[in-house]
Amino acid sequence: MEDYVYYEGKKLRKGYTTGTCAAAAAKAAAAMIIKQEKIAGVTIITPNGTTLQLPVDKQQFDRHTATAAVQKDGGDDIDATHGMWIFAQVTLNAGGEIRIDGGQGIGRVTQKGIAVPVGEAAINPVPRRMITAAVREEIGSDRGADVVIFAPEGEERAERTMNGRLGIIGGISILGTTGIVTPMSDEGWKQSLSIELEMKKAQGFRKIILVPGNYGERFVEEQLGIDGKYVVSMSNFVGYMLKETQRLAFEHVLMVGHFGKLIKVSAGIFTTYSKDADARAEIMVANLALAGAPLPLLQRIAACTTTEAAGEIMVAEGYSEVFQTITDKVKERAVQFLKYSKPAVDIDVITFSTDRGMLASTCDISTIKEAWR
C-alpha cells in the first residue's frame, strides 16, 4: 500500500493497524491449510473500504494447523507497535465456529470499562470481525477454526502504551476501527475536522452532533436512531470544535460521548487527551462528595482505573443521580466556553457507558430523537 496525506508541505505515508495485521495473518494461515502450500501475501479489505495487498512471512503449516505473520507498518505514524510481527495460528475444528483468542504478547482484560469482557484477550470488536471474515473466506461455511493471535514482542512493547492503566495486562491490544493508520499532527487533524464541519454547513446543515470518536457515532446511529449524516468527530479537541461550530454559525450542537471522555469537560478540560488531563477519578470523587457520599465510597472510586468500573460502584451504592449532575455540568461548561462570542449556540449533551447505554441527557431524550429526525 502506498497512500499518503499531506501536512504543511510534508508527504506522510499511511500505514495499517494491528487489527489489519492480525486479520491478514489469519487469512494466510487459513489459506495454507486449505491449499497445503505457503502463501506469500494476501488481500484484505479494511473496514473503511481500503484494499490492501500485504506480504506474509514466517509461514508454517500441516494438514490441520498453520501459522503466519504480518509486520505492523504504521506508515509515518511511528507508535509503540510499529515494526513488530503480529502472528496468527489457525487450527481447523469440526464445530463450524470460529473462535478467537490471544496468545503470547497479547494483553488480557482484567477490569471492566473497555469494549472487551474481563478475562478475554485484548482484541477489540472490529479486529475480531475482520479476523472472522478473513478466515471464513478461506475455510468456507462448513468448517470451524480456532484462531490464536500472538506477538512475541508484545509484552515489552506494551510497556510503552497505556494498557497497564486500563487494566490490560501481559501485552499489547489488537486495535483499529478503520484498519488504516493516518499520520497527522494535531494541527493537521484539527484542520481536517474543520473541513468536515465546513462541508456540512455548505450542504445546508444548521445543527450538528459532535462525538469523540467511533463509539459515539455508533451510539448515535444504533441507540438514538439518528442519521449519521449529522455526526462529526471532535476527537480530543472539544473546545476547538465548539469554537468552530460557533464560527460557522451552527444553531444547535448535540454532544454525545462516553462518560469517561466527556466527564473531563465538566471540569473545564476542553482538550481531553488522557496524557494531558486525566482527572476522571478526581471529578467523580468531587461530585460524589458534594452528593454526600461517605469517605470509604470515595476511596473506592478514587482507586478505580476506568469510569465504567466506578460507575458500577456508584449505581450499586445508590448514587446514579451523579451521572446527571456531571452531564449537566458538561453543558454548563460548554455554554460558558462560548458565551463571550457570537452567535449564540444551543447546546445539549448525552453521556453513555459501554455496559449501561445512555446514562444522562440534558434534554428529554424523546424530544432529542424527534428533533434530529
Automatic annotation (TrEMBL):
Protein name per Swiss-Prot or TrEMBL: Cobalt-precorrin-5B C(1)-methyltransferase
SUPFAM superfamilies in alphabetical order: CbiD-like
An annotated GO BP: anaerobic cobalamin biosynthetic process
Broad class of enzyme this protein falls into: transferase
Regions crossing the membrane: none
Reactions the enzyme catalyzes: Co-precorrin-5B + S-adenosyl-L-methionine = Co-precorrin-6A + S-adenosyl-L-homocysteine
UniProt-recorded Gene Ontology molecular function terms: cobalt-precorrin-5B C1-methyltransferase activity
Pathway entry: Cofactor biosynthesis; adenosylcobalamin biosynthesis; cob(II)yrinate a,c-diamide from sirohydrochlorin (anaerobic route): step 6/10
Species for this entry: Paenibacillus dendritiformis C454
Pfam families: CbiD
